Amino acid sequence: MKSAGGRLLAGLELHRDAAQPLHRQLYGQLRTQILTGSLPSGTRLPSTRTLVAELGVSRITVVSAFEQLTAEGFLRSRAGDGTYVDTLWSDNAPRQPLSRPPLSERGAATSSRGADLSGEAPQAWAPAESESFVASQVAASAFPAATWKRLLGRHAGSTEQFMNGYGDPHGHRPLREAIADYVNDVRGLGCTPDQVIVTSGAQQAFNVLAVLLLDAGDTVVVEDPGHISGRLAFQSQGCPVRGVPVDAEGAVLPDENDVESPARLACLTPARQHPLGIAMSPARRAEWIAWAERNGSWIVEDDCDSELRYRGKALPTLFGLDLSRHVITVGSFSKVLAPSIRLGYCVLPEDLVEPFASASSIIGRPPATVLQAALTDFLSEGHLHAHLRRTRRLYAARQDALLEAIDQRLSRRIQAEQVDAGLHVMGWLREPLDDIEVARGLAAGGVYTYPLGEYRVTRRLPPALLIGFAGTAEDHMPEAVGRMAAAWDRWEQLGARS
Amino acid sequence: MKSAGGRLLAGLELHRDAAQPLHRQLYGQLRTQILTGSLPSGTRLPSTRTLVAELGVSRITVVSAFEQLTAEGFLRSRAGDGTYVDTLWSDNAPRQPLSRPPLSERGAATSSRGADLSGEAPQAWAPAESESFVASQVAASAFPAATWKRLLGRHAGSTEQFMNGYGDPHGHRPLREAIADYVNDVRGLGCTPDQVIVTSGAQQAFNVLAVLLLDAGDTVVVEDPGHISGRLAFQSQGCPVRGVPVDAEGAVLPDENDVESPARLACLTPARQHPLGIAMSPARRAEWIAWAERNGSWIVEDDCDSELRYRGKALPTLFGLDLSRHVITVGSFSKVLAPSIRLGYCVLPEDLVEPFASASSIIGRPPATVLQAALTDFLSEGHLHAHLRRTRRLYAARQDALLEAIDQRLSRRIQAEQVDAGLHVMGWLREPLDDIEVARGLAAGGVYTYPLGEYRVTRRLPPALLIGFAGTAEDHMPEAVGRMAAAWDRWEQLGARS
């Protein structure tokens, strides 16, 4: 019969002034000693009286810790013979804590998909800030915060929102109606409220569609360059992607003679190719719809920032042109309102609605009811239209200011042209540099952009930066671009020295 | 050169009193005729003057519709020779709208995973209502709505929440700190805030973990019977599940001689086996941790309703007992607050935190910032503790009322025993009926429960219903159980006749 005595007592350190009560401290430290094997199974513990005396604590402290450890199977009392470490926990020789090698030392610990995903998130090295050139940045100051607060407040106190469990898996019915009105009006979709499902942003829709429509191994056509997180949603489901180039009419169709079987799905950005900004021509739209019909393939139409258009009319969505029901349109309020609101939608052919809702209730579940209720009022009371009018003016002015500042401060490094829609311009590098290196170099100087290279699938592209203009106020633009120019100079000098 | 004339005009129907302006109506109807091929390519349209006269509309209406259709590639003007349907759209013979066969006629339209998921959502036939016996129902009336409204209001108007893009992919930092304090205090996890990631409920955590840790084909051990949507998260990633039975000590370990390779992950509910309600014994906890360590497998510990305990002390989490860093704990505020709030968390070993955040920023993204900020205050100002104290008392009384009412009205049909924790009792059927049939029969009478049969993987179990008690007020319980008894009688009579 081993006895603990000295070793146990030497390892205990109780702090009277800690937030945690003494009996919890004693419990935790004894548990760790047992789990790590430094108190091996079968060890007899000192008597309550000894511990009280040695530790200078009350009897109730010791008894309370012992009781908890006994209830949890760490200790066992033998009548008239004291308390022992139970055999459950430390049959083996003393173990080191953290006996698993760190992930970095064993490649197979996460899945191959997990490995694909890690490090891909651009947030890691280009954090969004209140003012930055990150392309997904919106004007925080333009957000109608008082209105939003009022609408949230209108619904936040209602107990109704808590009465229906997780909420309707299709989304809040009044919001589906308001979204149908909105997309029919602004984007000409021609859908009923029954075809609309509310999601937590576009990404959730991509994830549900990937699970719903694709088996692992099914090929997906994506634009090259194209939307990063859309592509990752499909890749994370084990689906290989095939990039198609983008020309002046938009995404080019895949060469059907070139492959054994047609792709099961194509993910496209017809309204405004992401990131290049090209609007798909009517002819190309017709070709894609015919492609889907001919092959029985799906088209996922990412329509996410189509409303932010400064000049010219938007062309109608593929969804509105497709009579054969192969098109699914995904939209989001991240760009027109704010990404942190996490609200979006998916418009589906009728017979996909229920399968999508079932899959969504597993994969995503609808967003918080209070947010859906507030957005309903925001749409139906006309606040979104007013906000769009305001931000279109604001962003058009910010773009002009950006282009002017680039012209003055950065024209020897990049060439940028006005865009008709969206939140960023393409800044084409005048020298044959690696754009990912340039973006990292600028990030080291606190200036955040996205490099075009991150958007490529396999195709080599001329180097460019996506320069977002929505997050920087017009009168700050010269200074912000000046900082970019200075960061670039510093990065170049560092490179020249090394 | 074909001319449209009569056929075109016969197909047009414009409504002066419709909400849509006349030019949009004309545009839409012409577009449909072109898309469906009833106006084939090359068709010459009647002149503007003819249309104005025939339709009784203004010239600007016709011109505006023609301009839009021309911009979109549907029409083409030939100088001095009128307007023609462009060749883009209707090269083929007239097509029927809806040329894709409905999904129901082609099994391969959705993925095999999609097919697995459809119809699985129990919401479809057991909708949560303000008062029902659905096991995930909470007491809507007990929710501290005024406090929640105040806290949401505190953050809803701040523009700060809109300044950092999608928000920190780990979650709002102050909330991670508040959750770490909470789980360390209430559940003894012993984690740092850096190990906590905020999610939109537990389901999102399961989905991210499935992508992060598993490759398609990897086996996952699940409890049989067990959590439905947790299992589906893994199945939807193409991972086969292997059910292990549950005995009086909790989930039984898989027989390792029986299989070629050990499972890569086990998903367990040690605090309170879902749905049976058994707390895993200390010995069984030690065995599972040793299993994970021996096989290099992961344990996902679903700790979702562990805080709602009415009697006895909760045993510590596997996370807190595991020194070898193979355990990930998933928690949710769906049960302690409300499912429609969509907030949960995942506590990870240090080296999984960044991979999880990367994958999560693709698969889920963090919940809306305003909800995270409000929950931070709700936790740090002690409202959750107060709410837990109140609901524990409330639910204990509701459980007593349920058991008493069952005793009086349903004891010849079911046998139910008091549970120490959670939101439902198991109502074991006294007759060898199919519990899924019974639940559907009751649902037809407006009484919603979940049948145990829905929770099984492969094992046959005695028939039972999960009867939730949290959603029904104490003084309504006799009547609600009376309705259940009446619905049961009616269902039985229908069956006897058929």
TrEMBL record, chains A, B:
Species of the source: Paenarthrobacter aromaticivorans
Boundaries of every HTH gntR-type domain copy: 20-88
Lineage start: Bacteria, Bacillati, Actinomycetota, Actinomycetes, Micrococcales
Record Pfam families: Aminotran_1_2 (PF00155), GntR (PF00392)
Keyword line: Aminotransferase, DNA-binding, Transcription, Transcription regulation, Transferase
Region (Disordered): 87-122
GO MF annotation list: transaminase activity
Listed InterPro entries: Aminotransferase_I/II_large (IPR004839), HTH_trans_reg/aminotransferase (IPR051446), Tscrpt_reg_HTH_GntR (IPR000524)
Name of the protein: PLP-dependent aminotransferase family protein
Domain of life: Bacteria
